[in-house]
Structures are given as C-alpha cells and as structure tokens.
Design a protein that fits this description.
Order of helices and strands: EEHEHEHHEEH
Strand content: 5-15%
Largest sheet: 2 strands, antiparallel
Helix content: 40-55%
Number of strands: 6
Length: 137
C-alpha cells in the first residue's frame, strides 16, 4: 500500500510473491514512473517499516541514484499510523464485501481494489473538506 502524504490518496500494488527482493522493487519503480508521468512530480521521500522487501540492494541503489530519502520506522514501534489504519480499514471493508456478497475468497484482490477505489472517493480530509481523489486530481 502506498499513501500520498498530503492528499492521503491510496494505491494498492498487488505482488505475485513477496519473498523475492526484485518483485516489490519492480512494482515500486513502475509506480514511481507512473506518478512522474501523470503529475510530473518526483518521489522525494519514502517511509516504510523494516520489512525485508524494502531493505535490499535494489532499493538502496535506486534511492541513491534518484535522490530519494528512505526513512525506516523504529523496530517494534508502530509509527506509520496513517498507513496502518488504512490497511486495517481496507482489510475490514474487503472482508465485509466478500462476506456480504457471498463471493469466493479467491477474489480477495478484486475486493481490496474495489475497497480502496471507494475509500479514495468517499473519505474526506477533515481539515481541507475534500476527498482524497479531489486532492490528488
């Protein structure tokens, strides 16, 4: 899950395998290129936990080449509350969607995609009184 710091617009990138170092890196690299092409914005900073998928040679070299600051949260202390809360909300909404619609758990990715699509267009930033999608677009 990737969350824009200002707008709180959310993207969910589905990975075929999380244990391979290259797959999460490649997904992030494509995402960065998409954001750059769509908005002509640079990714300046990344904040992540100490998940093994973010701590590898691919990310380190990429960050160094592109001037990206990669900040890691302290071990065993949840610091990225925005992403943690969004992740929990996405999971709960996806479970509810699957349960109420009676579809198979096989469609988990589609349920999560639908959920984050809805959340981006319904949730409102309290201070700015706009949805995440309005702020991003």
């Amino acid at each position: 899950m990737i969350v824009d710091d200002f707008s709180r617009f959310t993207w969910v990138l589905f990975l075929s395998h999380g244990f391979c170092d290259f797959i999460p890196f490649e997904a992030f690299r494509k995402f960065r290129k998409k954001v750059h092409n769509e908005k002509d914005l640079k990714v300046v900073s990344i904040k992540s936990d100490h998940g093994g998928e973010f701590e590898n040679v691919f990310f380190k070299n990429f960050d160094d080449e592109n001037g990206i600051s990669h900040n890691f949260a302290c071990l065993r202390i949840p610091q990225n509350g925005v992403v943690e809360r969004k992740n929990r909300s996405l999971q709960e909404m996806a479970r509810t969607l699957i349960s109420e619609s009676g579809i198979l758990i096989y469609f988990w990715a589609e349920a999560v995609s639908t959920t984050y699509y809805i959340m981006n267009r319904v949730s409102i930033r309290k201070v700015l009184r706009k949805t995440h999608c309005e702020l991003w677009k």
